[in-house]
Amino acid sequence: MAASAFFFSLMGVLVKVLGERLPSNEIVLARSFMLLLFAWLMIRRAGVSPWGNNKPLLFLRGLSGFAALSCFYYALTELPLADATLIMYINPVFTGILAAIFLKEAIGWPDIIGIAVSLLGVVLVAQPSFIFGGEGALNLFAVGVGMAGAILSAVAYVSVRKLRETDDNMTIVFYFPLVAAPASIPFAIPGFLIPVGWEWPMLAALGLVTFIAQVAMTRGLSLEPAGRATSISYLQVVFAFVWGMLLFQEFPDPLSIAGALLILASTVGVARWRSRRAG
Predict the structure, then answer these.
(1) For the chain, which has fewer Cβ within 10 Å, the N-terminal or C-terminal residue?
(2) Which Gene3D superfamilies has this protein been placed in (predicted)?
(3) For the chain, domain boundaries
C-alpha cells in the first residue's frame, strides 16, 4: 500500500501537468487504454484467466473505479494537487462504513465521528466563500466532485476486498481498465484534443505508473482488512503536499493545514479503532 501511495502521487503530478491543456476526460481515456494494454500483457504472462468468476462484482469494481478516477482527475485539474488528493482521501472513512454493510465488518461511533470530523476538515480546506469570504475559496463544484470520487473509491475498495474470495488479483486489476476504457469514450469525444510533443511520453508514463499503483493497491487490499490497508495509503497526501510545493508552488495556508490535520487525524483514528476491533 505504501508503494501504491507513492505511484498514485506520481500519477497526480502527471495528470496535473497534462490537465493544463488536455481535458480530464481525455486523460482518463488515454490512461484507461494504456492500463488495459499493460494489464492484458501481465495477465497473459501470468497464465491467469482474464474473465474471472464473480463477473457482476468485477464489473462493479471496474465501473466504480472508473467513476472515481474520472472525479479525481477532474478535481486534480481544478484544485491544488494536495487539496484534491486530500479530499479524495476521506475515502477510508466511507470504506469502513461500506465494509460494515457489505462485508459485515464492525462499525461504531468512531466511524460516525470520523465522517463528521473529515467533513469539517474538507470545509477548512475548501474554504467556501459563504463562510470564509471570497479569498482562498476553492471551486466548490470541483470539491463536490472530489468527494463523490471518494465515495465511489470506497465502493471500489470494498469490491476488491470481497473479490479476493473468488478471483485472482491480476483479474481484479484487469477488469478496471476493461470497463473503464470503453466507458470513457463518450465522455472524451466532446472537446477532444490530439496530444502534442511531450504529452505523448507523459501519457505513456501515466499508464505505467498507474498500472504499478493498481497492482500494489490490489495486492495490499487482498492482504489486509479494508480499513487497515487503506490507512497506509494516507502517505499519498504527504507526497502530494511535497509535489505541490516543489513543482507547482502550491503552499497551503493555515486553514488548509488545519483541515488536512483534521482529515488525517479522523481517518487514521478510525483505521486504528477498526484494527483494534478486528484483533
Answers:
(1) C
(2) 1.10.3730.20
(3) 2-278
Instruction: Decide: 111 and 50 in contact? Cβ < 8 Å.
Output: no
CB 149 within 8 A of CB 71: yes
- pLDDT value of position 221: 66
Spans in the chain with pLDDT lower than 50 = none
Q: What are 251's three cell numbers?
A: 503552499
Are the beta carbons of 206 and 18 closer than 8 angstroms?
Answer: yes
Cell of 8: 498514485
**What pLDDT sits at residue 203?**
92
**CA distance linking residue 42 with residue 235, whole number of Å:** 27
Distance CA 214, CA 205 (A): 14
Q: One-letter amino acid identity for 210?
A: T
Residue that has been written with the C-alpha cell 505505467 in this structure: 208
pLDDT, position 188: 94
Look at residue 129 in the predicted model and tell me its pLDDT. 62
Q: Which three cell numbers stand for residue 226?
A: 479494508
User: 3-class secondary structure for the chain?
Assistant: CHHHHHHHHHHHHHHHHHCCCCCHHHHHHHHHHHHHHHHHHHHHHHCCCCCCCCHHHHHHHHHHHHHHHHHHHHHHHHCCHHHHHHHHCCHHHHHHHHHHHHCCCCCCHHHHHHHHHHHHHHHHHHCCHHHHCCCCCCCHHHHHHHHHHHHHHHHHHHHHHHHCCCCCHHHHHHHHHHHHHHHHHHHHCCCCCCCCCCHHHHHHHHHHHHHHHHHHHHHHHHHCCHHHHHHHCCHHHHHHHHHHHHHHCCCCCHHHHHHHHHHHHHHHHHHHHHHHHHC
Q: Look at residues 206, 239, 104 and name the one whose alpha carbon lies nearest to residue 158.
A: 104
